[in-house]
Amino acid sequence: MADVWQSSMDHAVAVARKAGEMVRGALKDDRTVMTKSSAVDLVTQTDQKVEQLIIQSVKEKFPTHRFIGEESVAAGESCNLTDDPTWIIDPIDGTTNFVHAFPFVAVSIGFSVNKQVEFGVVYSCLEDKMFTARRGRGAFCNGEPLQVSEQTDALVTHLTCVFRVRGAGTAAINMCLVASGCAEAYYEIGIHVWDVAAGSLIVSEAGGVLLDVDGGDVDLMSRRIVAANNRTIAERIVKEIESFTLQRDDAPLQS
Ligand SMILES: O=P(O)(O)O[C@H]1[C@H](O)[C@@H](O)[C@H](O)[C@@H](O)[C@@H]1O
Ligand SMILES: [Mg+2]
């Protein structure tokens, strides 16, 4: 990757840390749910404030860049990836965890150019772990290189009756667990591009494999993903799970 994106990445790390401070503060006194479109799809004021903080701060520094943010899309903005530099933001990944004070909550920022993720930043706010990856340059946690595990006996961070299962309740942290070698795989159908844009690069830069749940190439707009330490385990998951299709994130808006 040309060094031209380094200052954007440095900014992403700085703003993710600032956002994390806001999340930690709000955990003490502002976890009120504003809307609830389903039992698991919650929104708090903090989600919205954190997204605004990130977007404002990026706009000041990089006025031509575009954004796809969970809360902006919820408010009606489009969710189309173009070739332009685009910040893909999940202000609080793990909002349900946040509301319950379950201590796995992340700020997730992916950055794509020509529809390819160039860097990913996931800040696990309560663990104070800053996960970063740049395309072609490895993945790191608090500056230490990450490597997926060599285990063939899989611990998986999502539901299946075949593997041993653990789940952090946030897609971004689940993927960082795979990248860190603490779990062998993660899969989910129903996530959105902002949940996985950053985490997917962190997994692949740590040596992991990404697949669609049908075994093809992963498509970040398709709302489905398998991330694993190696291809054998990724393909086993593809074989074991029953896949289904959801409306894509970039489906035309209903008028
Ligand atoms: O907390 P958010 O950002 O809404 O993301 C969660 C997603 O909505 C759920 O479907 C997933 O199960 C979680 O892993 C996500 O992180
Ligand atoms: Mg999320």
From TrEMBL:
Segments passing through the bilayer: none
Keyword ATP-binding: no
Statement: the UniProt record of this protein carries the keyword Metal-binding: yes
Annotated binding of Mg(2+) 2, by residue: 90, 93
InterPro entries listed in its UniProt record: IMPase (IPR033942), Inositol_monoP_metal-BS (IPR020583), Inositol_monoPase_Li-sen (IPR020552), Inositol_monophosphatase-like (IPR000760), Inositol_monophosphatase_CS (IPR020550)
Complexes and interactors: Homodimer.
UniProt similarity note: Belongs to the inositol monophosphatase superfamily.
Protein name: Inositol-1-monophosphatase
